[in-house]
Design brief:
- The protein is of the alpha/beta class and 675 residues long.
- Helix 3 runs parallel beside helix 19, helix 9 packs parallel to helix 13 and helix 16 crosses helix 18.
- The radius of gyration is 24 Å and the shape is globular.
- The protein has 23 helices and 26 strands.
- The termini are far apart.
- Strands 5-4-16-15-14-6-7 form a 7-stranded mixed β-sheet, with helices on both faces. It has a 6-stranded mixed beta barrel with strand order 21-25-22-24-23-26. A 5-stranded parallel β-sheet has the order 10-9-8-12-13.
- It folds into 4 domains: 50 residues, Phosphorylase Kinase, domain 1 (2-Layer Sandwich), CATH 3.30.200.210; 227 residues, Rossmann fold; 185 residues, 3-Layer(aba) Sandwich (Dimethylsulfoxide Reductase, domain 2), CATH 3.40.228; 117 residues, Barwin-like endoglucanases (Beta Barrel), CATH 2.40.40.20.
- It binds iron/sulfur cluster.
- The site of iron/sulfur cluster has 14 residues, from helix 1 and helix 7.
- Iron/sulfur cluster binds next to helix 1 and helix 7.
- Belongs to the prokaryotic molybdopterin-containing oxidoreductase family. NasA/NapA/NarB subfamily.
Length: 675
C-alpha cells in the first residue's frame, strides 16, 4: 500500500497526515511525525478521517436542475449566465462566495478571475465568518495581515492566555501541546471565556468575562501594567507609534471582573514576559472583534512581548486554508498578495496579471453580498465549497436571497446541501483525498494536500473548473494552466509585488520550482519564525497602538453564544459520516444555567426553544453549571438536511463588526421557552 503525506482538512492547526490506501475508498490514517504542526499527533476528527471518505451522497456529475449533463454543456451554461449578467448589468452584478476549504491554488484563480478579468471585487469567503476581524486588527497594528507567532512559542511561553477559545475541543492538537508545555515547564494557563468550557476547567485561572467584555478587560490590563511599571518604554519609543497620552488615559475600571480574579490575572501577566495570547472565534465573531484583536495586540506591544521566543499575540484560524485565502487575496477588501487598492498597487497587479479589466476597488463582504443578492443587485452567484444557507447569519434571509437569485451555481462535493437546493447548476468538485494543492495553517506553514484516490465520476478540481469557465469568457491565455503546480508558481512569483513594497509575504524562492519539486514540497513557513520585532511593514516602520473604547456591556435579557462540538466540523457533511465521531453528541443541545432554566420553565432532557430577532429553533435542554446566568449556548453544526431542529444559523442576527464586516455569532439577544 502506497503511503501519501497530506494534511488534515479540518481546523487551522494544519496537522500532517499519513494516509495508506487499502481497498476501494478505505484508507488508514496516522499523524505525520515529520510535520512541524503536529509531530505525529492527531485529534479525534483527524484520526477518524478514514471513516469519512465514502462516496455516499457525493455529487459526481454536472447537473443543470435535476438533469445530468456533460461538462461542456454545464460550463457553457455557467459562462453564458455570467457573460449575460456582465453584459446587461455590469461586472458588479456577479459574485463568488468561496471557502476556507478551497486550496490556495483554487483561491488564487477565483480571485484572479473575479478581480482581474471580470472586473469586480465581489469575491468573498466564509473565512469572513471566522477570522476577518483578526485580519483587520493585524492590518491596523502591523500594516500587514501577519501572525507574529509560531506553535514553537507555545513550548517556550511561561504564560499562555486563551481568549474566546475552547482549544481542547476546537484546536485539540494545540491543546495537547499546551498541556505538554505545562507539564514540562510549569507554564501557567489562563482562559478568558464567558463559559466554563472543558478548556477553562483545566486552566490555572478562568476569567469569566461578560460577553464582549474583552476590550474592557485588555484595556484595564494595559492600564494596570502601566501602573505597575511593566510597560516597556524603550520598545514603545523605538518601535511603536503611540497616540499622545494614550497610556495615561486608559479606563482601568470597566471590565466587570471580580477584583480578586482580576488581581490574580494581573499578577500572572506582570510576572510573565514570555506570554502568548492565543485568540480565536470568541474574539473574532463579535461586533467589536477588530477592537478586541487590537486590545490584545496593544498589550503585547506596550509590554514588548512580541517577536521573541514564547511571546506574542497569536490568532488561531478555524479552517484549514483560511490563511491561504488571505494570502492570495480571497477577501473582498483585499486585492491580491497582501496588496490593497491604491492606484500604484492596482497598477502593479494589473501589469502582473496582464488584466484587461482590473476591479476599481473593494467588493461586497459576505453579509453585504447576500443583501445585494436579496435586493437583486447581484444576479449571478457562484458558491464554492460552502453552505451559506446554513452557516450565514440570518440564514432565513440568505435562503430568500438564494431563492430570488436568477443564476445560482454551486460547486460542491455533496449533492444535496441546503444551499445546493437553490442551484440552477451544480458542479462536482474534488473532496479531501482527491484534491491536489497547498494550504497554509495558523502559523504560516504551507503544506501539501495530496490525492489518495482518483477523482470519482466526473468530479474536477475547483481551479480547473474556474480555468475552463475563464476560457469560455475569452480569457483562455491568462488561464492556460495544466496543473496546480503551474498555478502555485504564478502565485509564488506574484508575491514579489508584496515583497517589493516591504511586506513580509514572500514566496518568490518557490516561483521556479519544477512539477516534481512541487509534488515533493516539504512544509515550509513563510516569514520565518518571528517576522515582527524591530521593523513593521507600516510607512513609519513602527507598529501602531490603536486607540479603542470598550463597547457598553449592559444587556437586558439573555445572550446567545454559539460554537463547535469537539467531534464535528461545520455542517457535518464529512464528520457526520463517522459513527464514532457522531457518538460524542448525537443531537444539538441547548446549554443553560440552572437559574435561567427554572425561570424559563425548562427541564433537563426536555425540549426548549430559543428565539432571537432572526428566528426560532428547538433543542434538547442540557442544564449546565458551566453556563453563567444570563447566557445560553448552542452548537453550529445541524442543518435542515439532517434534522428538524437545532438549526442555529436561523438564530444569528446579521450584526457585523464595522472594520472587518465579520458577523457576531456570539452575544445575540435571545429568549427561551419550553416546547
Ligand atoms: Fe485535524 Fe485540527 Fe485535529 Fe489537527 S487538530 S487533526 S488539523 S482537526
Amino acid at each position: 500500500m502506497k503511503q501519501v503525506r497530506t494534511t488534515c482538512p479540518y481546523c487551522g492547526v494544519g496537522c500532517g497526515v499519513l494516509a495508506r490506501r487499502a481497498e476501494g475508498r478505505e484508507v488508514a490514517i496516522a499523524g505525520d511525525p515529520d510535520h512541524p504542526a503536529n509531530r505525529g499527533k492527531l485529534c479525534s476528527k483527524g484520526t477518524h478521517l478514514g471513516e469519512t471518505t465514502g462516496l455516499e451522497g457525493r455529487l459526481i456529475y454536472p447537473m443543470i436542475g435535476e438533469t445530468r449533463v456533460i461538462w461542456d454543456i454545464a460550463l457553457d451554461d455557467v459562462s453564458a449566465r455570467m457573460a449575460n449578467c456582465i453584459a446587461e448589468h455590469g461586472p458588479d452584478s456577479v459574485a463568488f462566495y468561496v471557502s476556507g476549504q478551497l486550496l490556495t491554488e483554487d483561491y488564487y484563480l477565483a480571485n484572479k478571475l473575479m478581480k482581474g478579468f471580470i472586473g469586480s471585487g465581489n469575491i468573498d469567503t466564509n473565512s469572513r465568518l471566522c477570522m476577518a476581524s483578526a485580519v483587520a486588527a493585524h492590518n491596523r497594528a502591523f500594516g500587514e495581515d501577519l501572525v507574529p507567532c509560531t506553535y514553537d512559542d507555545l513550548d517556550e511561553a511561561e504564560l499562555i492566555v486563551l481568549v474566546g477559545s475552547n482549544t481542547a475541543w476546537c484546536h485539540p492538537v494545540i491543546w495537547q501541546r499546551i498541556e505538554a508545555a505545562r507539564e514540562r515547564n510549569g507554564c501557567k494557563l489562563v482562559v478568558i471565556d464567558p463559559r466554563r468550557t472543558e478548556t477553562a476547567e483545566r486552566a490555572d485561572l478562568h476569567v469569566p468575562i461578560k460577553p464582549d467584555g474583552d476590550v474592557a478587560l485588555f484595556t484595564a490590563l494595559l492600564a494596570e501594567m502601566a501602573a505597575r511599571g511593566a510597560v516597556d518604554e524603550a520598545y514603545l519609543a523605538d518601535h511603536c507609534e503611540v497616540p499622545e497620552a494614550y497610556l495615561a488615559g486608559l479606563d482601568a475600571a470597566a471590565h466587570g471582573i471580580e477584583p480578586a480574579i482580576f488581581s490574580r490575572l494581573a499578577d500572572l501577566v506582570a510576572a510573565s514576559p514570555r506570554m502568548v495570547t492565543l485568540f480565536s472565534m470568541g474574539v473574532n465573531q463579535s461586533a467589536s472583534g477588530t477592537d478586541k484583536g487590537n486590545a490584545i495586540i496593544n498589550l503585547h506591544l506596550a509590554t514588548g512581548r512580541i517577536g521573541l521566543p514564547g511571546a506574542g499575540p497569536f490568532s488561531m484560524t478555524g479552517q484549514p486554508n483560511a490563511m491561504g485565502g488571505r494570502e492570495v487575496g480571497g477577501l473582498a477588501n483585499m486585492l491580491a498578495c497582501h496588496l490593497g487598492f491604491a492606484d500604484e498597487e492596482r497598477a502593479a497587479v494589473s501589469a502582473f496579471w496582464q488584466a484587461p479589466n482590473l476591479c476599481g476597488g473593494p467588493g461586497l463582504k459576505a453579509v453585504e453580498m447576500f443583501r445585494a443578492v436579496h435586493e437583486g443587485r447581484i444576479k449571478f452567484l457562484w458558491v464554492m465549497a460552502t453552505n451559506p444557507a446554513v452557516s450565514m447569519p440570518d440564514a432565513a434571509f440568505v435562503r430568500e436571497a438564494l431563492a430570488r437569485c436568477p443564476n445560482v451555481v454551486v460547486s460542491d462535493v455533496i449533492a444535496d446541501t441546503d444551499t445546493a437546493r437553490f442551484a440552477n447548476v451544480r458542479l462536482p468538485a474534488l473532496a479531501w483525498g482527491e484534491k491536489d494543492g497547498t494550504v497554509t495553517n495558523s502559523e504560516r506553514t504551507v503544506s501539501r494536500q495530496r490525492p489518495i484516490f482518483p477523482a470519482p465520476g466526473e468530479a474536477r478540481a475547483d481551479w480547473r473548473i474556474m480555468a475552463d469557465v475563464a476560457a469560455r469568457l475569452g480569457h483562455g491565455s491568462a488561464f492556460a494552466y495544466t496543473s496546480p503546480a503551474a498555478v502555485f508558481r504564478e502565485y509564488a512569483a506574484m508575491t514579489s509585488l508584496a515583497a517589493a513594497r516591504g511586506k513580509v509575504l514572500d514566496l518568490t524562492d518557490k516561483a521556479d520550482i519544477t512539477d516534481a519539486q512541487y509534488d515533493a514540497l516539504e512544509p515550509f513557513r513563510w516569514g520565518g519564525v518571528h517576522p515582527l520585532r524591530e521593523h513593521f511593514p507600516t510607512p513609519s516602520g513602527k507598529a501602531r497602538l490603536v486607540p479603542i473604547s470598550p463597547p457598553g456591556l449592559a444587556r437586558n435579557g439573555l445572550s446567545l453564544n454559539t460554537g463547535r462540538y469537539r467531534d464535528q466540523w461545520h455542517t457535518m457533511t464529512r464528520t457526520g459520516l463517522s459513527p464514532r465521531l457522531s457518538a460524542h453528541r448525537r443531537e444539538p443541545l441547548l446549554e443553560v444555567s440552572p437559574g435561567d432554566a427554572e425561570k424559563a420553565g425548562l427541564v433537563d432532557g426536555g425540549l426548549g426553544q430559543v428565539t432571537t430577532a432572526a428566528g426560532t429553533a428547538t433543542y434538547r435542554v442540557a442544564i449546565s453549571d458551566g453556563q453563567a446566568e444570563g447566557q445560553v449556548f448552542v452548537p453550529m453544526h445541524w442543518t435542515d438536511a439532517m434534522a428538524a431542529s437545532g438549526r442555529t444559523g436561523a438564530l444569528v442576527v446579521a450584526d457585523t463588526d464595522p472594520h472587518s464586516g465579520q458577523p457576531a455569532f456570539k452575544n445575540v439577544p435571545a429568549a427561551l421557552a419550553p416546547v
